[in-house]
Amino acid sequence: MFLPLFLAMLWGGSQALDSFKLQVQEFVMVQEGLCMVVPCSIFYPSRGWSPTTPAYGFWFRDQTPKPSLPVATNKPDQDVDTSTQGRFQLLGDPSESCSLLIREAHLEDSAVYFFRFERGDYVKYNFMEYKFYLEVTALTQKPEIYVPEILQPGHQVTLFCAFNWIFDECPVPTLSWIGNTVSPHEASSRTSYFSELTFTPRPQDHNTELTCRVDFSREGVSTENTVRLSVAYAPKDLVISISYTDEPALEPRGDSPHLEVQKGQSLRLLCTADSLPLATLSWTLQDRVLSWSHPLGSTALELALPRVKAEDAGRYTCRAENRLGFLSRSLDLSVQYAPENLKVMVSQANRTALENLESGASLRVLEGQSLRLLCVAHSNPPAQLSWARLGRTVSPSQPSDPGVLELPQIQTEQEGEFTCRAQNPLGSQNISLSLFVVSPPQLLGPSCSQEDEGLRCSCSSRARPAPSLRWRLGERLLEGELSNASFEVASSSAGPWANSSLSLREGLSSGLRLSCEALNGHGAQSGSVLLLPDEKGLASGAIASGISLGIGVTTLLFLCFILILNRKPNQAVLPSLLLQMVTPWKPERIRRSSIPSPTTVQDPSHPYKPQKQRTTKRSSITLSSTSQALDHGRPKDPRARTQSTLKSSSTEGLLGHRTRMQARERGRAIGMRTECGLSLSLFNAPRMGHPIPDPGAA
């Protein structure tokens, strides 16, 4: 009987508890000094009160064991906690809302709070099961300042300051600007959630501070935020720093514009500059760009030079540039190294360049030619140049330019090794070349004499290198050592001299032409002998030089000879003597020298040996010589030749026996009277040609 009643009472009590409800956040956080609203709503039974019955709400700090005074209430004449008086306040209609306004939160306000509601006689309830925890933290919230990243000098700009204020029920804070850039009228305070500041930046405003302050109460609770202004400026304070292989640390170079390094060292160049916005940096060598920074700019740019080379020398320039201007600084890099790439430039006396010679080269020069040797070396510092011949120093031709060596009229004794030496404090280098003096052939002869066994001719020539001799007999070419029944050729050479002899035993015919030819790689020369028979087939043994008698004497003798023939046609004529110097030019197959031919000089030191006199018979012989040396590859004009003919005629009746004997024995002049009534003095001519030099005397 009591059990149903007890269950009914529990059910009714449960319904009564379920009719009291409260909705509030369990955890609330607020920063010290700030204001906030804690939203709250209640539900309670509609018993024991009427619409006109007042409703009272109370917020208590949950304390054990005994609750204290409420921190906020809407009940008149109700005492409240003095620590929260005027700061904690109930908001809205108490019959529906239990929201709590907290102003200027203090750290001591941190606690657990619960709500009590009263209306009429029945509704009086402590919502102990619905509590919230309030935590008050230190003030860290700051106003937000909106400012462009970079301010342009002279251009007006507007800055904004805002504070995150989300509760309309809270009093509006006071915002103000503080800074050197703010004028007095701009520094006035404004009561609002945001504030703006308009001003014109100046270059001196760069890196200055600007503050926005938020004041919440008369107790001095405030918060502020400070920014540093960035006013754009052109690049400045450009510095170049360097480091070497063994010195990894960078060292500012300062204002020194010159840097010396040795070849092979590693070098790092670092360029830094201050600018806003960041400048674009670049490294250039002369006018060639080596590297540059990111298009967005950079504060530093490094240039690495591993193993510096000679061609790395020059002016290095670092340039920093942005839209407001540019700045640059240069560094002259000098690379020091020992002499290298040593070479000799060869030219003629007229400074016409021939070729460049490397070390060990051979230089062949025509005797009598003038040369100019110029020694050139690459080095830093510049090398001292000197010339030596066969190990002995040669005085420079130009003291102001010791690398120049002039050799005028080169002679054979100047042959040898010439060495140019280049030296500086870092090392030295030598270059040597061998000088060889060459010359075209100088022909001596041919000289011919009639002997019992036939005709014997000799020919000698001097040249460097020694020439080769050969005989041309008619259309036949004879050279070397040859011997048969008709002729015999014997040759020898010593030093620059070459000798050859030709003995003809038979084959002497009318109009036979005999010539001796000498040639080497630098020229050729030839001499010819023309044999003319007399009317009786006999040969005379006198050979003389008729050039000295002249063209006039030759003409006179010829006229007299015609008169004699016309008056005494049946009288026998003695053999005639005809001497003819002819210089016909024939092309020779020879190797041409690239060096012009010098003037032919007779070697005065050569000792000539007199030939052994042989018993000779008189013959009629014509000698001609051809001299051909390579003069820039062109032969002498064959028309420019000298011809001289001496022809003398006499009969056995015109010359007395005694006169002939005296001419033979004494070699004196013969007084001769011709049919034309003229007197003529003839001289006994010496044998044509030069004696063959002794090979040992070369």
Automatic annotation (TrEMBL):
This is Sialic acid-binding Ig-like lectin 10 isoform X2. The keyword ATP-binding does not apply. It comes from Bison bison bison (North American plains bison). InterPro entries: Ig-like_dom, Ig-like_dom_sf, Ig-like_fold, Ig_sub, Ig_sub2, Ig_V-set, SIGLEC. It is a single-pass type I membrane protein. Residues 631-640 have a biased composition (Basic and acidic residues). Residues 590-670 are annotated as: Disordered. GO terms for molecular function: carbohydrate binding; sialic acid binding. Residues 594-603, 618-629, 641-652 have a biased composition (Polar residues). Belongs to the immunoglobulin superfamily. SIGLEC (sialic acid binding Ig-like lectin) family. GO terms for biological process: cell adhesion. It comes from the Eukaryota. It is found in: Membrane. The keyword Iron does not apply. The gene is SIGLEC10.
